[in-house]
Amino acid sequence: MDPVVATLTRRLPPGAVLTDPADTAPFCVDWRDRENGAVRCVVLPGTTAEVAAVVRECAERGVNLFLQGGNTGLCYGAVPSDDGAGVVLALRRMNKVRRVDRLDSSLIAEAGAPLVAVHGAAKEVGRQFPLYLGSEGSAQVGGLVSTNAGGTGVLRYGSMRSLVLGLEVVLPDGRVWNGLSTLRKDNTGYDLKQLFIGAEGTLGVVTAAALRLFPLTRSSAHAWVATDTPGQVLELLGHCQDAFDTAIQAFELLSRSEVEITLANVPGNRIPFAAAPPWSVLIELGDADPEAPLAARLERVLERRLEAGTIADAVVAQSESQAMSFWRLRHTLSEANKRHGMSHTHDVSVPVSRVPEFLGEADIMLARDFPEAVPVVVAHFGDGNVHYIAMFTREDWARRADPAVDIERLQTSVHDIAARLGGSFSAEHGIGRKLVGELQRLTPPPELDLLKRLKRAIDPAGRFNPGIMFPA
Ligand SMILES: Cc1cc2nc3c(=O)[nH]c(=O)nc-3n(C[C@H](O)[C@H](O)[C@H](O)COP(=O)(O)OP(=O)(O)OC[C@H]3O[C@@H](n4cnc5c(N)ncnc54)[C@H](O)[C@@H]3O)c2cc1C
User: Fold this and answer.
1) How many angstroms does the Cα of residue 260 sit away from the middle of ligand 1?
2) Ligand 1: distance of its center to the CA of 311 in Å?
3) pTM of this structure
4) Residue 232 CB–ligand 1 contact under 6 Å
5) Ligand 1 centroid to 132 CA: how many Å?
6) CATH of the domain spanning 3-90
7) For residue 73, how far is its CA from the centre of ligand 1 (angstroms)?
8) Residue among 83, 92, 99, 111 at smallest CA distance from 27
9) Does the C-beta of 150 come closer than 6 Å to ligand 1?
10) Residue pLDDT, tens place only, 107-142
11) Helix (H) or strand (E) holding 215
12) Domain residue extents for the chain
């Protein structure tokens, strides 16, 4: 037996080391089934002490570790290298919610707890953890922290960076940093937890996180608005901000193509119009006050926009189930895109006011350079975060002489447009293996130098997630 596997098997409880290829295969491929790796074994530690033991053992033997949560990441950051020399450390057995405190408005969960479990535990004490995304059944606390996940609630509550109060982390030498504080204010030097948030497993294994909770949303209003242009969407956002300020919980944009794909590929999805409009905006307002008259106020604002002719149509949900059907469509679109064809997704952000300009320029580029692709757009519009998707048919993609060259050309063009408008080439999905070259290409040298120096300072042997974020 491989000596590394033998030692890990001795150190961990029965069943915590997987070697059978049938068992390890799901850990070696990404959610979209596009990137494959290989491993000596997969380890499933159940406690922080077991994680530390695995890390120490691998450090001593010079074995690389690939960290994995729910494996829903969209940049191949949880996929091991293809040389088969590393070990996947998956956190799924560390899935307890250790503590929930209503008055402190905080919750401590282990890294392997799925997001839905955190939502449930917070709700039991009359609080919410306001991170909402389509992968919430599978994505885990450690992965959400490590990718600084966003989703539809960022406009009001911020991304994981704003929602984490403290972390427990196993460092590359096997020591445990217990930073599981729930303090709101603590100015004692560098804010170390921020280093590990969004680090994509390159600096340490997150084993638990203290998270901020918020009052439950006790009244809400949901609207589906049809518009003709992204410029009208921007204008509508301004009016909603004037009227509702922080009550806006989500302001999402979908192109006609995206709505049509989602209707065609996910049974049961419905829209409140006879046909998909050119641009759809999904708005959610929320308030802790159960009496807040949000639906009536939203109707008034939208009526005024209809009278002014700056929106084409609007439906305010008349029931909880209608509201849920709006959001069901929104949260099943990644699954629909995966089924529909060969989608190439870009996750850029630009200043909110420049989203229409970005969309205009990207469409011109796509029609010129990739006329066979359909532009598909889903945007967290209120955050200036656009998922600009070039959708190809599988047949067309299979015919390409050199798909890797085409992907690079497409990606470079989309990212350059965002950069010209003062934007970022990765808004919420991170770098993973997918954007390693883009991080090198588009990051200003002093910033890239600092990133590399931090990595070397904390993980000098480069044992954690090699090939992810930085070249291996
Ligand atoms: C249908 C769908 C919808 C999505 N919607 C959104 C969205 O709206 N917004 C958004 O931001 N993302 C979205 N995502 C992407 C994805 O869900 C997030 O990136 C999520 O945070 C990944 O969590 P995970 O547990 O699956 O992590 P994984 O995919 O397992 O890992 C992601 C990265 O984190 C590292 N990592 C995982 N666990 C740990 C740990 N304990 N310690 C250190 N490093 C670790 C991995 O090595 C990897 O680099 C979506 C994905 C899908 C499939």
Assistant:
1) 26
2) 35
3) 0.95
4) no
5) 13
6) 3.30.43.10
7) 4
8) 92
9) yes
10) 999 999 999 999 999 999 999 999 999 899 999 999
11) strand 214-215
12) 3-90, 97-215, 219-322, 341-426
